[in-house]
Amino acid sequence: MNDSMIVISAASGALGRLVVDHLSARVSPGRIVAAVRDPGRAADLAERGIRVRRGDYDDTASLHDAFEGAGRLLLISSPELDPARRVPQHLAAVKAAKDVGVGAIAYTSVLGADTGGAGVAAAHHATEQAILDSGLPYTMLRNPFYGEAFINPGLRAAVTAGELAGGTGGRGLNTAFRADLAEAAANVLTGDGHLGLAYDLTGPLWTYPQLAETLTEVSGTPVAHREDPDSVAGPLAWLHGQVRAGALETQTEDLSRVLGRPATTLRAAVVRALTS
Questions:
Q1: Are the C-beta atoms of 176 and 144 separated by less than 8 Å?
Q2: What distance, in Å, lies between the first and last C-alpha atoms of the chain?
Q3: How far apart are CA 65 and CA 47, in angstroms?
Q4: pTM of the full predicted structure?
Q5: Which strand ranges, in their side-by-side order, compose the sheet holding 104-110?
Q6: What confidence tens digit (pLDDT) does each residue in 133-172 have?
Q7: How many Cα atoms sit within 13 Å of 255 on the Cβ side?
Q8: Nearest to 107, CA basis, from 76, 143, 144
């Protein structure tokens, strides 16, 4: 790879910061540009020698300035969930990248974005198509749901209660953790052989009954699994419904291949959740 700049959009978010951390261990800070909506939220990055530029998805001029000189751009999807807002934001970012001559673009898409434009994948499908239409060299990073939504310090309550309730129907989850996905993105940004490819990034398949067994093993306290869809509320209830329908069972080796190592295991994730 040459010595051109690497720009990370939405760099002050959870995923963006992890990508910046990985990049900082590989290239000089002066080659990294953190494009953020509010530069004040990235003062700590500037203190590390990383260039901070204002790059607001709702301000096209700022995107031109933020992406200028980029050999490679990681376009992290907007946190805006409404496709009516998210799609125009992404299309503006792709156009800005094209306008200023970005060398290559990597985009954090979602599993299934290539096959349809409905539901969660709608904005990602439109964005992938815009990137293809732009003619820019690209890499699609199709992420699964984050493992942190299911495996987090909140599991301590299940250990205390001796019971893990859920509504997954015992079906598999192909989640992956932000740290792994960020490292994969950094590998694509700093490595060769990724252009023109789309990666369906999935972690090792796991189930809630397996999670209960792992909680038991790691904590030393018996934790039983109980199937009860009514025990889950809010956005997590929707997620459990998706799992129950078998929507999270797609499996590939792309994540471990891009990482050059196995993705984080269920046991390692549980250990981290219970000790963090």
A1: yes
A2: 36
A3: 21
A4: 0.96
A5: 51-54, 32-36, 5-9, 70-75, 104-110, 138-143, 197-200
A6: 999 999 999 999 999 999 999 999 999 999 999 999 999 9
A7: 27
A8: 76
